[in-house]
Design a protein that fits this description.
- The protein has 181 residues and is mainly alpha-helical.
- Helices cover 83% and strands 0% of the residues.
- It has 2 domains: 71 residues; 103 residues, no CATH class.
- The chain is globular.
- It comes from marine metagenome.
- Keywords: Cell membrane, Membrane, Transmembrane, Transmembrane helix.
- This is Intracellular septation protein A.
């Protein structure tokens, strides 16, 4: 259910854009969808995750700037900034506190040695960085239609690819058994 709520704003944004061909109206719909997402998360879980707060805050800043200045370039940078913040967070939390952020988030779901958590964290950090870079490359080298489509399908496929790579790495390392896959 949470994944559906998480992807709903970008799905609605994409549908709105392709129906109206108005990036500014679609941006407004995206911001409304993100606000509803925050409200639903609070109603269902009695709290809003830091990840959701970061995404919502950055979306308000960049989406609001897109609407205020009537310039879609702010919107282009939104996913890149979000991805790069997550990339830096994964590395900096460990560097400054000695704690592994990925382990803090997922450590209750799976028990792994610290060196494996470190590799996973660095892999995800690299993945977030590449995802942000790819977003900007697509935004500035392809049409708006391609970029909007990429936001929906590309973002989902990249995340799915990260998860598959992580699962294969853990399975090959003997950290997962067949019943966990």
């Amino acid at each position: 259910m949470k994944q559906i709520i998480e992807y709903l704003p970008i799905i609605i944004f994409t549908i709105t854009y392709f129906y109206t061909r108005d990036i500014f109206f679609a941006t407004l719909i995206l911001l409304i969808g993100l606000f509803i997402q925050v409200c639903l998360e609070y109603l269902l879980e009695k709290k809003v995750s830091k990840k959701t707060k970061i995404i919502f805050g950055i979306s308000l800043l960049f989406g609001g700037s897109t609407l205020f200045f009537r310039n879609e370039e702010f919107l282009f940078w939104r996913p890149t900034v979000i991805n790069w913040i997550f990339s830096v967070l994964l590395l900096s939390v460990e560097f400054f506190s000695g704690k592994n952020l990925l382990k803090m988030i997922m450590g209750k779901a799976i028990i792994l040695p610290d060196n494996v958590w470190k590799k996973l964290s660095r892999g995800w950090s690299l993945g977030f960085f590449i995802s942000g870079l790819l977003n900007i490359i697509i935004a500035y080298n392809f049409t708006l239609d391609v970029w909007v489509s990429y936001k929906l399908f590309g973002g989902f496929l990249i995340t799915l690819t990260y998860i598959v790579i992580m699962m294969i790495y853990l399975w090959r390392g003997g950290y997962l058994n067949k019943t966990e896959l």
